[in-house]
Amino acid sequence: MGTDVFAGAEYNRSLSDNGRYVAFVEQAVKDYETFRTFKTNPDYRAILEHVSPELGLMYLNVVAGQTPYFFEILDRFKINDLVGSPQKIQYGPVEISPSTLRYVKVASDIVTMFGADIGDVVEIGVGYGGQMLILDQVCAISHYTLFDLKPVLDLASKYLECHILNSSYNTSTINQFDGSACYDLVISNYAFSELPSRLQRVYIEKILQKAKRGYLTMNSGLSNSVFKNDKLSLDELRDLLPEFNVLDDNPLNYPGTYIIVWGL
Length: 264
What we know:
Layout (H helix, E strand, L loop, with lengths): L19 H11 L1 H5 L5 H4 L7 H14 L1 H5 L1 H4 L11 E3 L2 E3 L1 H17 L2 E8 L5 H9 L1 E8 L2 H11 L8 E4 L12 E5 L7 H10 L6 E6 L15 H7 L4 E4 L9 E5 L2
Parallel strand pairs: 3-4, 3-6, 4-5, 6-7
Antiparallel strand pairs: 1-2, 7-9, 8-9
Helix pairs in contact: 1-9, 4-7, 7-8
């Protein structure tokens, strides 16, 4: 790609803001040929779209046992594989991306825990909008707000506008948000846990403390978590977040990953 591009100052970068990721995202937003195959790019797959075929099968098995009717409508979720040229794997009669199955598993968890009517939703760290697109297939969503770096939000908007949605959405950086809105459900797939602690606290104050329900997949906060430097610990999170339960990350993606849930 050439020159590295960072969205934040050095003291204020998430782990995904590594120079190469943002540079590629900006290119994918501007250039159609790059966008057409963005899910196969190595710099992008280092951050997203890297679920292995084996892990995809484990997600599929969780979905089949937890929400069997999802298993019967897998073709509906293949909407997430129509754009970006993802790697697809044949699982029995269905060919689907393992990364899409990751989003389907999260949707299965959310429907199982909170029901299908999830109201006003906010997601912290949105990738290209795939989680929203999958939830939109099976949930009643009043409105969906996506928070991320500005270039990532541009990519997510470009991606979501390739589809016809049942719900509506808007995008925002945390600096553009005044903290006045309260959400029915906050979601984050690892992204919140990968932020520096100062930025974690801002998201907590502006969004998480006021959310009625929460579903956060975490890869920091424990002594054996993958990411340790400048991250809030689980004990610190207990003092700052609404009272929550800690659930196993099933299947276990990495050592020290877990799920924080509240509002059950």
